[in-house]
Specification:
36% helix, elongated, alpha+beta, single chain, disordered N terminus
Length: 694
């Protein structure tokens, strides 16, 4: 009640601590709207996106104000009795009376503004006294006797929804709403006050059940639909004179379903506002709050679930005639007669401390903090959690932790507390109960996911992890991937990918020998692998895999590593065969700039595996290597015929040619055929001399 006592506008310091913040979003006169058109019959605001104003003096026009760019209004020369902007798109509905019709008839049209096309039109056989977009595709039309629904889609005409009840006869209709599930409708009107209090306008309401096709007539000035824990409710505000006594109430009534009982609360009007009355009601799904706005600018804020008063203050010195929900903020817009467009929003930083401190209502503070995931309830949450834990009520403690605002209790410390509780025979561990509760409410955070994975892996129930992963219940992290790497590499890879642990993703792909996927993945996520580190790891684990990886790395554009660096990595580990395999592949083009590498691959094999070198030379794939160096190594390796084919000096040839024991006669004869006559004779003399000496 203390929160509802300060009606005058609070000082700046108090306003900063208030649970509701009010700011001026726009002044209609600042965008060229004359004050004479700032009225209920000229201004409409079907959602937070647009304001629509009809100008009827001189040249008739419709002004459309996009709240995303309010200083650039769109003015169109249109004559209409009413104009409604679609709540979500640039579509306008126009209504104009058809002259010389009796009874009065209206012409209804719907236009796409951007496409400049008419969507549909209809000539209503009776006058439409009030209309409103009830969904982004459906308009509610209220006549003197009935309510119709007109769909923007298709070619259908308006369809009668229900007849008006007698209590609304002669009323000025000020609002019409349909529940989100389209099963309930509510029509609200006002009429002159009772004789004993004529200044107080009387409010009437008709609640219609679509399924039961039944209406209920009630007294109310403002109403709205909402949901509480899955149950449809209607909330409405009344201000009546009963037996000379002024009574102001807020009602929250379930519309079928179980688990919610109707609630009511008093609306505390100060004495100077005795004849003021509600003109609008908005419900915030985000915060679970009811906003009741009065004609003279009072704002009442109530909790939807309990109908508990949260706050009251005067938000406008000028009469308010129109409001619209702001789904983006969880607040609402209000327009007053001066043309101010006010935006009321919940102050996320102060509402919970305000309720727990100023209202001394810790339970409500906790409820709103959980509902909207707000800060400010930390001490309350910790205190309650410790009490539940001390009582051994681990299930309730787990529930509280799962729903703690901003995850205040979802910490390693909480996990440690549950882990430390002794497991009773025949019962599941409290830690597992905690995780089970979290999984039913939402997914787990990174720390929780790792701890749960440790628990189920230790119990050989890894298939549970598969299910939770498929349901996106676990938050992927590098630590979780590390935990799974040995038992399930494929799942670990999925975790690394989701966790954006790119270095680990690349390593895993390399281990799986899926080298092409490495470059594809790296390009997709904009990651440059440490190719040198990757090569070194692969060399330790899989020699042939390292060869394949190396071939891919040097074949990239630009190369991830140069050929010399990769070759040295193989040779540093004495991996001659792998180095040879790599070089033979990358040196296939036989380019002059690869002369040193051609020499190297021949050199290392002539020293260690001469038969491999012999095969390479026999293949004739290289032509730029150091021939004198290779000739010497061939001679040392006993490949005398190869040496002879590379030597160009006679002394070298004469020294080699005498090793006839290692040269086939036919090959030697063919070699002599390649020599000049003089050199051939010299070599023949060398052979004869050596033979005589033997």
């Amino acid at each position: 009640a203390r929160a509802c006592s300060a009606v005058p506008r609070p000082p700046a310091a108090m306003a900063a601590q208030a649970p509701i913040a009010i700011k001026e979003a726009l002044q209609l006169p600042n965008v060229g709207i004359n004050s004479q058109f700032i009225t209920f019959t000229h201004v409409t605001m079907e959602s937070e996106k647009f304001i629509c104003v009809r100008e009827t003096a001189g040249n008739n026009s419709v002004v459309i104000i996009d709240m995303a760019n309010p200083m650039q209004p769109l003015r169109r020369p249109i004559t209409a009795d009413s104009a409604l902007m679609n709540p979500s798109s640039k579509v306008v509905a126009l209504k104009a009376a058809i002259p010389n019709t009796n009874p009065m008839q209206d012409h209804l049209q719907i236009f796409n503004i951007d496409a400049k096309t008419k969507i549909k039109s209809f000539q209503m056989p009776e006058q439409v006294l009030f209309w409103k977009w009830v969904t982004p595709t459906l308009i509610g039309l209220v006549t003197a006797t009935a309510v119709y629904h007109w769909s923007m889609e298709g070619a259908s005409d308006p369809v009668k929804a229900f007849d008006r009840t007698a209590n609304l006869e002669g009323n000025q209709i000020i609002n019409y709403r349909v529940s989100p599930d389209m099963k309930w409708c509510v029509l609200v009107g006002i009429t002159a006050g009772s004789p004993e209090r004529p200044q107080l306008v009387k409010g009437n309401m008709q609640l219609f059940s679509v399924e039961q096709k039944r209406s209920q007539a009630l007294e109310a000035h403002a109403a709205s639909f909402a949901q509480v824990n899955g149950t449809n409710v209607i909330t409405f505000a009344t201000k009546t004179v009963v037996a000379g006594q002024l009574t102001s109430k807020l009602h929250v009534v379930p519309l079928g379903g179980a688990g919610f009982t109707k609630k009511q609360a008093d609306l505390f009007f100060p004495q100077e506002f005795a004849d003021d009355f509600p003109v609008s009601m908005q419900v915030s799904d985000k915060y679970g709050l009811i906003y009741v706005v009065t004609k003279l600018g009072l704002l009442f804020v109530y909790d939807l679930e309990t109908a508990t008063a949260v706050y009251r203050n005067r938000i406008s010195p000028d009469p308010i005639f129109l409001t619209a929900a702001s789904d983006a903020t969880g607040g609402f817009y209000a327009i007053n007669r001066r043309g101010q467009v006010l935006l009321a929003t919940v102050n996320d930083q102060t509402i919970v401390p305000f309720i727990s401190g100023q209202l001394n209502n810790a339970e409500l503070a906790m409820s709103i903090a959980k509902r909207a995931n707000l800060a400010g309830a930390g001490d309350l949450v910790f205190r309650q959690f410790d009490q539940l834990f001390a009582q051994g009520n681990y299930k309730a403690a787990a529930e509280l932790a799962a729903q703690s605002p901003q995850g205040a209790l979802r910490t390693p410390e909480t996990i440690a507390k549950f882990k430390a509780v002794p497991v009773q025979p025949g019962q599941s561990p409290p830690l597992l109960q905690y995780f089970g509760t979290l999984l039913t409410k939402s997914g787990l955070n990174a720390v929780e996911s790792v701890e749960l994975a440790k628990l189920v892996i230790s119990q050989n129930k890894k298939q549970l992890l598969d299910n939770w992963m498929n349901e996106n219940k676990l938050e992927c992290s590098e630590e979780l991937g590390d935990l799974l790497q040995q038992s399930d590499p494929d799942m670990a890879l999925k975790v690394y990918v989701k966790a954006q642990a790119s270095p680990k993703v690349v390593i895993m792909l390399a281990q799986k020998k899926e080298y092409e996927k490495i470059t594809k993945y790296s390009q997709q996520v904009g990651y440059t692998p440490d190719w040198l580190q990757l090569m070194m790891q692969q060399l330790m684990n899989d020699g042939q895999g390292a060869v394949n990886l190396a071939q891919m790395i040097v074949g990239m554009t630009p190369p991830g590593l140069d050929i010399n660096t990769v070759t040295d990595l193989f040779l540093q580990r004495n991996m001659i065969r792998e180095a040879t395999s790599f070089l033979l592949d990358v040196l296939k083009p036989n380019l002059p700039e690869h002369a040193m590498l051609q020499t190297k691959v021949l050199e290392i094999n002539l020293i260690t595996f001469p038969n491999v070198a012999d095969a390479i030379l026999a293949n004739g794939m290289f032509s730029h290597y150091d021939r004198p160096r290779v000739a010497q190594l061939c001679e040392k390796a006993g490949l005398y015929l190869r040496a002879l084919s590379h030597y160009t000096d006679l002394p070298d040839i004469k020294r080699c040619v005498v090793n006839t024991h290692a040269i086939e006669p036919q090959a030697l004869t063919e070699f002599f055929g390649t020599l000049s006559r003089e050199w051939a004779l010299d070599c023949l003399r060398e052979l004869l001399t050596l033979d005589c000496l033997r």
